[in-house]
């Protein structure tokens, strides 16, 4: 069973400034302590192939997972990260990918705002789909977007 969820929001900063946060390891620093307990860089410098270990706050269903940046496209402002160990993979998921896309706002001629789109793609084995597909929620996407938006507006 394959599924997808997404959230899009306008942020009142230029696309380049939003990408400086979403396209780098900086986003991890911003969400640490708010959405996750800790994020450790296992390998890499923030580019494609970087592996992070995320330690989650208690009560989220699992305590940790590792993700790998499978795409960091600075030109098109797209970053993808896939869970490679722990977390959803322990619950029968064969894919759990988050994509960040930063786009110029087509309704803003001044370039002072952008659109941030977060997409979650997942695939879960059929035999556990009914039981575990309900674990997928766009609440983490909304949380990331909210914390990031607040940070970007404050750092103005």
TrEMBL record:
It comes from the Eukaryota. GO terms for molecular function: abscisic acid binding; protein phosphatase inhibitor activity; signaling receptor activity. CDD domains: Bet_v1-like. One of its GO terms (cellular component) is cytoplasm. It holds the Pfam family Bet_v_1. GO terms for biological process: abscisic acid-activated signaling pathway; alkaloid metabolic process; defense response. Keywords: Alkaloid metabolism. Residues 3-153 form the Bet v I/Major latex protein domain. Belongs to the BetVI family. This is Bet v I/Major latex protein domain-containing protein. The lineage of its organism: Eukaryota, Viridiplantae, Streptophyta, Embryophyta, Tracheophyta.
């Amino acid at each position: 069973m394959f599924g997808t969820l997404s959230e899009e929001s306008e942020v009142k900063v230029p696309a380049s400034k939003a990408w400086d946060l979403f396209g780098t390891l900086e986003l991890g620093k911003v969400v640490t302590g708010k959405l996750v307990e800790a994020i450790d860089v296992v390998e890499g410098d923030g580019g494609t192939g970087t592996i992070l270990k995320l330690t989650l706050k208690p009560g989220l269903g699992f305590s940790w997972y590792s993700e790998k940046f499978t795409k960091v496209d600075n030109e098109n402002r797209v970053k993808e990260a896939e869970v490679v160990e722990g977390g959803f993979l322990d619950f029968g998921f064969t894919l759990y990918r988050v994509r960040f896309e930063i786009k110029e706002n087509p309704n803003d001629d001044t370039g002072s705002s952008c659109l941030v789109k977060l997409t979650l793609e997942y695939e879960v084995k059929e035999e556990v789909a009914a039981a575990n597909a309900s674990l997928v929620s766009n609440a983490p996407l909304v949380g990331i977007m909210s914390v990031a938006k607040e940070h970007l507006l404050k750092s103005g």
